[in-house]
Amino acid sequence: MNKEILKEVEKRLYSYFEREYTVKGIKLKISKLEEQITQIEEDIKNNNVIIEEESRAVTYGEKVQTSLNYTSYAEREFVKAIERLEREKVFKLARIGELKAELRKVEEEASEIECNMHRLSKLDLEFIELKYKFKPKLSVEEVSNELNMSRSSAYIRRDKIINEIYSWICIPGA
User: Fold this and answer.
1) Residues in contact with 122: Cβ distance below 8 Å, sequence separation at least 6, in sequence order
2) Reported confidence tier of residue 9, pLDDT bands at 50, 70, 90
3) Angle, CA of 142, 147 and 148, to the nearest 5°
4) 154 and 141 in contact (C-beta within 8 Å)?
5) b/e for 83-118, b at 16 or more Cβ within 10 A?
6) What is the DSSP letter of 132?
7) What is the DSSP string of 46-97?
């Protein structure tokens, strides 16, 4: 049994059994980001921004300045505040896109295993659930005790299951 293959398939099995929590977490993050985007849009729509007060310190030096800028300090600060909100919204939209891509990847990897689980025997299913699904994670020796089999039989069964699962899934570079 190639150790690289064993590690990769075991990683996929752990991910497969934890996908429910992973998907739930990703969907919660997306929901929170969408709520924040809605709040940002409301702030922009209602002009709900805070403008810092212009410094009114008295200066006694002679200062002559000609300016062709016809916007007031308040208008410039208001535009800056709205632009900050718009940048924050764009960042959050990009993050939602990343999370949705991650969600698709998790579901794709799980589907490779899920659509072939019916091929395993009842004993094999029980073995992988004990080893990879339930917490705390059990060692192969502990699984062998649970299933009343010898330690060597448990390792042989694990290798057989890993090889069978490996034949179902696409592992790049393995």
Assistant:
1) none
2) confident
3) 95
4) yes
5) eebeeebeebeeebeebeeebeebeebbeebeeeee
6) I
7) TT----PPPP-----S-----------HHHHHHHHHHHHHHHHHHHHHHHHH
Query: pLDDT by residue (tens digit) across 130-173?
Result: 998 887 888 889 999 989 999 999 999 999 998 888 887 766 55
- Locate 170 and state its tokens: 């696409």
Distant-in-sequence contacts of 120-125, Cβ < 8 A, 24+ apart: 120/161, 120/164, 123/147, 123/157, 124/157, 124/160, 124/161, 124/164
The answer to whether residue 54 scores a pLDDT higher than 80 is: no
pLDDT tens-digit profile of 107-122? Answer: 888 888 888 888 889 9
Q: What contacts 13, CB < 8 A, 6 or more positions away?
A: 113, 128, 131, 132, 165
Percent residues over pLDDT 90 in the chain: 38
Task: Measure the CA–CA gap between 18 and 22, rounded to whole angstroms.
Answer: 6
> What is d(CA 137, CA 28) in angstroms, rounded to the nearest whole number?
26
* Percent helix, strand and coil across the chain, each to the nearest 5: 70, 0, 30
| Model pTM above 0.90 | no
